[in-house]
Amino acid sequence: xxxxxxxxxxxxxxxxxxxxxxxxxxxxxxxxxxxxxxxxxxxxxxxxxxxxxxxxxxxxxxxxxxxxxxxxxxxxxxxxxxxxxxxxxxxxxxxxxxxxx
Length: 101
Description:
The protein is mainly alpha-helical.
């Protein structure tokens, strides 16, 4: 297939056929994926003041009050417990009001 790509898709003065264009798009995409996978978030260790709390939910609420982000809370608790604590679990704990006794 030797279709010429319209100039508004290309850089100034560039001219290429469809196959070369698709290959260049795929290379840019793969390069972006590789760069994103190399950027891993640093996981903070769980401070001792949270370890003494009785439940994961109480840890989540306390960490949120201290300014931790939801993603950071999930990653840190996952590291601490050795099991996955999902962002969705953290969010649900934070948006659900406590039951009155």
